[in-house]
Amino acid sequence: MYREEVQLVSSTFAHSIVHAFETFVQYWEELCANIRDGSLSSRITDPSIRSAMSKIIHPDPVKADLIYNRCSNLSNWYRLIPALFPNAKYILGIMTGSMLPYLKKLRHYAGELPLMSADYGASEGWIGANVNPKLPPELATFAVLPDIGYFEFIPLNKSIEEQEQDDESDFLRIEPKPVGLTEVKVGEEYEIIVTNFAGLYRYRLGDVVKVTGFHNSTPELQFICRRNLLLTVNIDKNTEKDLQLSVEAAQRLLADEKLELVDFTSHADLVSEPGHYVIFWEINGEASEEVLNECCNCLDQSFVDAGYVSSRKVKAIGPLELRVLKRGTFQKILDHYVSMGAAVSQFKTPRCVGAKNSQVLQILCSNVDRKCFSTAFG
Ligand code: AMP
Fold this sequence. Notes:
Layout lengths: L7 E6 H24 L9 H8 L6 H13 L6 H5 L5 E5 L8 H8 L4 E3 L2 E3 L2 E5 L12 E3 L5 E6 L4 H7 L12 E2 L8 E7 L7 E13 L2 E9 L13 H17 L3 E10 L6 E9 L4 H14 L3 H8 L7 E5 L3 H11 L18 H8 L2 E6 L5
Parallel strand pairs: 1-2, 2-3, 13-14
Antiparallel strand pairs: 4-5, 5-6, 6-11, 7-8, 7-9, 9-10, 10-11, 12-13, 14-15
Helix pairs in contact: 1-3, 1-5, 7-8
The structure holds adenosine monophosphate.
């Protein structure tokens, strides 16, 4: 209704922006009909939504036809956002970390509109500002706001020996000592500890960041991943970042076939003997058996962690399993989290579903369409 007035398109996380436009793509004809008639479809029953919309919607056949024609002329919904909102200047949201996989789709909808990666923060407090907003999200860094809290950094690259030399008296300490804001080194990775004015004391945020430089005297951080270990069966250790790299490699094989990966997650299956990794994919389109097998082998080979590769070779970890999900499965997972009280705008797809998360595992396992096993290690 206010399409000319929209100056920017934004949500906390990039996932919600993509989700909103995917929903639009599903229901656009109905929305045009609603604008034409000036009334909401009867299936919208929520009284607060009906009442809010009744204040802004009125019959506007000219606008409805214009939107209808614009959408009909798009090729595979490329440039949907500027077609709908001609005066939008940019797209804003968190696009780093676990949001990176949604960038391709977001760029498709955005066309030439710039993507601006929003700041780095958490419910526990704001951490850093994106002071170079014109850089593409893949290169975004965040300058730590030095007086918004007290920040410490656990070095992640230090070897145990270096650590022992640092602190020989403390045999029980298995992790390096945290360093202060001014002691971090460029090129090193750290986990952040926050102490804030609200009273959180030395809280481990669980995020891994890399120092890329300094903005004046405050460090600039690149977000790497969540620290918690994702996939492990044996002596292997693969993080969110490792999973992302492996999925990106295999996704290229899908793209060659003009197929699109909608979303993904993983699970370490420890029930079967030997245990193995399970990767769940939701794909837009029909992948052939051959392509799926190639993707499955590629996923397996792209986990380069020495513990994984050696365990695979001696068959202490079984062949990686790729399970293709029915369309709409990740929507069901989102609905599940929302029904438990999560906000859609805060939603981050869990990249690894553990056995304890039985409800989500159940949704995944009961929506498998096809599956295949890797033959990569013979
Ligand atoms: P929440 O506690 O739900 O507010 O989420 C905070 C978490 O979201 C952080 O600890 C990060 O893991 C993630 N996050 C927040 N901002 C960013 C960002 N700019 N880039 C990547 N991840 C982020």
